[in-house]
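So, can you check this record?

>
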Amino acid sequence: MITGSAVYHVVEAMAPLYTAAALGFASVRWLRAFSAEQCAGINHFVAIYAVPVLIFQMVSTNNPYAMNGRLVAADTLQKAVMLLGLMAWAAWESRPSRRRGPKASAGASPLQWVVTAFSVAALPNTIIMGVPLLGGMYGPVSKELMKQIVVMQFCVWYNVVIFIYEYMAARRAATEVMDGGSAKISPASPGAATPPEKIAPSANDSAAERAHEVTVNIEITEVVAASTAQKGVTDNTTTALAEEVSTGEDAKAAAAKEEASLPAPKSTAPSVGHIALKAGKKVLKIPNTYASFLGLIWSLIAFKCGIKMPKIIDDSLFTIQTTAVGLSMFASGTFIARQSRFVPCGYPIASMSMVLKFLIGPVVMLLASLAIGMHGTLLHIAVVQAALPLAVTSFVYAEEYKVHADIMSTGVILGIFISLPVTIVYYILLGL
């Protein structure tokens, strides 16, 4: 049975988060202490430095040889089922017959909703909220189980989310390049002929300059004759130029007619495999990937050989990792302050995200856990942790890639408020 002291410990964990978010909100909305570019810089620091260091610390201190296989299998099954289901829906919505009309191009792509819905429903805040809350419900054993789940999120699922973000960015860049390339093909390109009205004055000027040179070098008695000769040359030049311009215009008209009769060139979009390969290469270069796999390699060696991280390195990493959660909440507050309303995504979408977070996610986890064969306290822990609020890291990535950051910020702020009564309800229902 959860006690009053356990609830107080949860409130203790929640208060610093809201303090950082409130400070970020006040700094932008009322104090005007940060510009939009500075707020983006704060979020970029969290995404590039603070979160990767936090990932490395969490993964490197987890014992991979003592992980609970059933919990990891149930967690993996839940997330895989939800992601595959959302991808199937996106494939259905992306059919040509479903994407016609003006509304199809105006709204967000189905893939954006896939990554948003998956992050909201399947990536909970297991460390900040899960450890104190589930510790009060099920005892100290829940702490290590929460850590195992967050390690799987960092090593696998956040990399999957980032891959989807990078895939969308690569596809968008390829589309822009393709459209830009076709737009540059025009008669006014650098290889086009110079307009005739710009040719004639320059030719007349050259003739005048030549006549002037002749006039300077002859005697006064021959000025009249030279002028007569110059007039004849000029008339001949003008006639020749007129014929040349007429011939050029005829050739240009013929070329235009021939070009119009030819079929328009078809622009070929890059294949899905090419875009996916480009996105995969980009994922391999970002700090999160290095942090997760380096942490995993270190944990495999450290727990096998019984060695520890040198204190100078451990303290250096600790200094940076402690900024991750606080600055993430601060960035969330600054984002909300820059919006026109407190719930940026609107109440209907916010309500749907809460349904995804606190109903669909836990129900899918319950079914996945039962399919794996879990029961008792382990089953209860798996379901209750699925009802924890949205992880702050999801907002950081959404803001970094500019994909539904309004939904993520709303999910983080409102989710922390709603999670406490919802998890207590699940705790009571599972204990019946």
Remarks:
- DSSP finds 16 helices and no strands in the chain.
- The longest helix spans residues 141-183.
